[in-house]
Design goal:
Layout (H helix, E strand, L loop, with lengths): L7 E8 L5 E2 L8 E2 L5 H7 L7 E10 L6 H16 L3 E7 L5 H11 L6 E4 L12 H17 L5 E5 L2 E3 L5 E2 L8 E2 L19 H12 L5 H4 L7 H6 L5 E6 L9 H15 L7 E8 L10 H9 L3 E6 L9 E7 L8 E7 L5 H13 L1
Parallel strand pairs: 1-4, 1-5, 5-6, 6-7, 11-12, 12-13
Antiparallel strand pairs: 2-3, 7-8, 9-10, 14-15
Amino acid sequence: MNSSFMQKVVVLGTGGTIAGLRDDPKDPTSYKAGQVSVGDLVSKAAQFPKFDLVSQQIAQIDSKDMGFAIWNQLLLAVQRCMDNDDVLGVLITHGTDTMEESAYLLARLIKPTKPVVLTGAMKPFDAQEPDGPKNMQEALLVIQELSEANMPCICVVIHGVVHSPFRVQKLNLLSEAPFYSEPATPQGGTGTPGALSSLGEQGRSLAHELGNSMVHPDSMNWGLAPSLSHFTSSKTLPRVEIVMSHSSMGEHTLLHTLLAELKRMRLDSPNSPSELKGVVMVGPGAGNLHHALYAPLLKLMELGVRIVVTHRAPWGTGGGGIRVTAPTQAGTQSEELSLELPRSALSPVKARIALMLSLMA
């Protein structure tokens, strides 16, 4: 590849705190996300001497409002960069609230031929000491090092740490290092670019994951994911809800409400795009579910709703399953319906995306 082609990094902006402005200069926690253009973000971050930074605005939102339409635009923009020999890598500025979901979706639908790095900030653009510019600089350094190491991949870089899209979760609201990756220890040290000088253990872990599809078997083998063109040409995503199992559950649960709604919708509006297609159950421990959930779960499954179980703990193992048993309509103890639900090691929000992709395949 001609060396002149190695100098362009495309910066895709979606909004977030990194592009936020304060409502009250005296209160750093009072701000509105997604107010500053990605061009201004690039201007405020020190120019990276080895790259020509080209910016493109995808959206300007608070990432809590991330949705299907913006995901589509982002996916297509990233794919265009993958297909463009002039582009060395892609930097995505994104709100931290849903960054882990977007990173996971990108990792499932994009086959990277060059580095794609997501970054953001915990302080707004006009904070007294914003963390966004530094995070952007470190993300650019990671793009450079991944490119030099011939490691095309998708990752998250925050506070000097490289995170896998499969493992990263936001668990800390009071730190400039909000993301954690397994093992469950705080990530982020000095935050100096020099700490990334060989990508360290994070880089080796990423290389292993991206070169071995069995590292995350529950996220890879829930059926084939749709092609990128199929996903982006779809009008809507399959409806998948997340329901948590908790103590003191009564006889009537959210699952009963979903079940009644599904039955009514099939009578009144058959084939409605808003019909329930899947449920991610979030259980305590290894994904154990309250017994009050068994009967409605089995009835939902009888109606064709896909169920997967994950757990409330930040990390754990998938594999195996959770067995649920409930009396049949005959109601005798000797006549019980017993089924095993698949269990995932993914976080609930990523399990939801994985299930949606499986339903679209």
